[in-house]
Amino acid sequence: MLRFWRLLAGGLVLVVTACSGDSGAATTVATTQPSTTTTTTQPLTTTVPALAPPSEPGAVIEYLYDVWLDDRGAALAVFAEEAVITNIPPTPGTPTTREGVASIDFWLAQEASISESVEITEIEVDGDTVIWDDLACTVFDCWTATGNVAVIKDGKIVTWDFGQVSQA
Fold it and tell me: Is the pTM of this model over 0.70?
């Protein structure tokens, strides 16, 4: 869903574009004036195709962080079927290793349910290996993971070793 506000003379305009299953896409425009609200809905005349995951190793990680919280299917698409995520060192209360897309899908869902934002703070690429630091924030606090290391083959994450996790 695309959502943005624009202030116009005398009022605030909210434009929301949404797509849902077979019902198609529509654009809803809600205009709020000091004493009235008007809402209209119109079919979209153009569509924007979904971006395919990239194949370059650094871009794969950047793509994952771009889609992680909003599109779990797109996020999961960058993992190889046999992918392994390992917590090094282990985070208390979490599995040390997640193997395969089903386990990774469950983890992505958990992370997305508690996170408000995830972002890469530094990234370095050496062939098929990507090393990066990130910042993830929930409604309560933020955490950094420094020294994440992933190996990407044919545009898919094969292994991901978590870096050191600490409260930001």
Answer: no
Tens-digit pLDDT profile for residues 57-77: 999 999 999 999 999 999 999
Which pair of structure tokens corresponds to residue 85?
């995520």
Backbone angles phi, psi at 101, to 5 degrees: -70, -30
Show the tokens assigned to 106: 């469950």
Hey, what amino acid is at 146?
A: T
| Domains in the chain: boundaries | 2-43, 57-167
Burial 85-115 (b: 16+ CB within 10 A, else e): bebeeeeeeeeeebeebeebbeebeebeeeb
Residue type, 111: E
Q: Are 149 and 129 in contact (CB under 8 A)?
A: yes
Q: Per CATH, which fold does 57-167 belong to? A: Nuclear Transport Factor 2; Chain: A, (3.10.450)
* pLDDT of 134 above 90: yes
